[in-house]
What we know:
By secondary structure, this protein is an alpha/beta fold. The chain folds into 3 domains: 10-99, SH3 type barrels (Roll); 116-324, Rossmann fold; 332-445, Rossmann fold (3-Layer(aba) Sandwich), CATH 3.40.50.40. The protein is 24% helix and 24% strand. The strands form 6 sheets. The protein has an 8-stranded mixed sheet with strand order 10-7-11-13-14-15-18-19, sandwiched between helices. It has a 6-stranded antiparallel sheet with strand order 1-6-2-3-4-5. α4 (204-214) runs parallel beside α9 and α6 runs parallel beside α7 (372-380). The radius of gyration is 26 Å and the shape is globular.
Amino acid sequence: MARPPRNKNTVRKKAPKAPAQDLHKGYRGAALECLKKFGVKVWSDVLIDSSRGRFEGRVLPRAESGDDQHIVIKIASGYNVGVAVDAITDIKETGYAVAHYKIPEKEFPFKEGRPFVKLLGTGGTIASRLDYRTGAVIPAFTPGELYGAVPELADICNLETEKLFGVFSENMGAQEYVVLAKAIAREIEKGVDGIVVGHGTDTMHHTAAVLSFMVQKSPVPVVLVGSQRSSDRPSSDAALNLIHAAKAAAESDIAEVMVCMFGPTSDLYGLLHRGTRVRKMHSSYRSTFRTIGDVPLATVNRERIAPLRDDYARRRPGDRKCVLNTAFEERVALIYYYPNMYPDILDALVDLGYRGIVIAGTGLGHVNKPCYPALKRAQEARVAVYMTVQTLWGYVHMDVYETGRDMQRLGVIPAQNMLPEVAYVKLCWALGRTDDLDEVRRIMLTPVAGEITDREPTNGYLILQGGLPEVEEFISGHWK
Ligand code: ASP
């Protein structure tokens, strides 16, 4: 199969007759003078010589809020660099380009016999382009435009797209979760073969967990996908992740809520992670999503999907039913404990009427002694308090130390090996369903979608998701 074509964000042509002020868009003061002095403008390809070295790139418009002391260029890696005007000795124009940042939305070519996939867009970098007015990444790709950028999708499936929201994922919340869960259930009922959810990566693991609880027993794969690098950058993972996700949704036998993102640091394969065991683990690497305390579900590349385990929910062809339950109590907090934490934080939550608190405790699940009276108050106020571990890997054990037993007497319930964020959204979901704290406890401690496992793999627990060649190289370099 051919590689997806690069984003053609720019077409090279002769400089258009733009109004004079647009030629230096956003530049003023010393920076404007410098551009004029060397006869270059916004969108010029330039070689800049400066006392700090030589820079090569394309002159970008300045943000309205930018200073007047720098010329900003986009270099080949995709990063933007500001070159200080007072250090510049020479600028040569080597070319000129006019930007076309709008990729035309194309109707997806329907082909008889291909699986039908629905892409629900929520926003994030995968749905973004750069806004050169502010220099910010803004949500501006519609899912239809995504197809315009990745035509290879048509080899995999018949795709329909729908933009539900256009938000960065820190803005996802109860309202969006419910709309998304309902949209997924609606598509399942219509009889799609698979669903892809385009999502910002930052909180994708929250949404994957929420959907794992809200949309149960899906007969088809529900695949969340995002990208760490926007599609205007040569190292963007947007196209490949999307191709992998579409393939997983169209062909995979795994009918679960999953996250599909880069596996190793190379583009060898993507990984399918179970929605309740996955976490974003690096702020900028493309291979940021890792299955925690377990083995990922499968690898996926353009050719095939290879399951890494057998205990997954199977696709049910012809079935159009799932179990939808969109309950969500918002008065739940997730507290990351730190030494010297004051109990007033817990007191405040109780006073504010919070109904649930998940604590990410130290080690096996601890908080300091001064917090105990606050935990007792929470218990008396019928606030559900659950303990998880900051270590992420491993189980809460509150029977090992006396302190753990004390906390259990104060009503703190160990949440086994649920990840803190997963325990948080599950508690929102459980408290949304019932006021009965015994029933909440039963819901919390009964696994729904693999969020609690009987055991975690003991060997290679950090890397059972693809070797990292650079780590191997580093370690073997130290063997003498
Ligand atoms: N801030 C973005 C988001 O989570 C990052 C991304 O999409 O990767 O929406």
